[in-house]
Amino acid sequence: MTLGFAVGVLRETGLLEGVMRAAVVALILLTGGALAGCAQKQAAEPVAATPVAAPLQATPGLKANERLQLAIRSLQNGDTERAHVELTAFVAEQPRNRVGTGLLAQIETPIETYYPRDSFPLTLKSGESLSTVAQTYLGDPLQFYALARYNQIQNPSRVTAGQNIRVPKTPAAIAALAKGPAAAAPARAEAVAPSASSVDTATDPLPPAPSMDDPRRAAVQGR
Hints:
The protein is mainly α and 223 residues long. It contains 9 helices and 2 strands; from the N terminus they run H-H-H-H-H-H-E-H-H-E-H.
């Protein structure tokens, strides 16, 4: 019996549609069973857990002054996470130190609260940095980091001559601006000479002296 003859017989007897429906049902059942098997296999396979990075820890074995200097260097290079960890450890050790608490406040305080909204423009000249601008207009070179945040500068050490920044109109900045360009010349680091008493560790040796306009030199005044 040929396939065509068999199909003709089934059509004449009215059985063709029933056979086709049965074939379709069987195909659906086979397909559903295969998919269910695949799903069970996938569910049985363990999902690899995403590794969780260990939280950053303060550098062990540092003296208070060394930890403070590391925090300032980290802020200068835009490593806020490292600076925050080190400053938190430093302030836990030296809770009354105004340098440490002041730097920590620069990180944690919303910048719109830390500085007034109003500002005036300033173009950096050769030899100027955020720390010298902060010393001149804000009265504290260590406010270089807050000034960087105010200007959305990620790395405070990477500013260049000719770069335009905004200086917040604090009372100190307004007073410096009113005195004119001569009075507002970049302050040099001689005005902030180091003293170990700033971190309440008079017996600790200071690290090598920073460059003349390096804000770390001001860390020793204990503001």
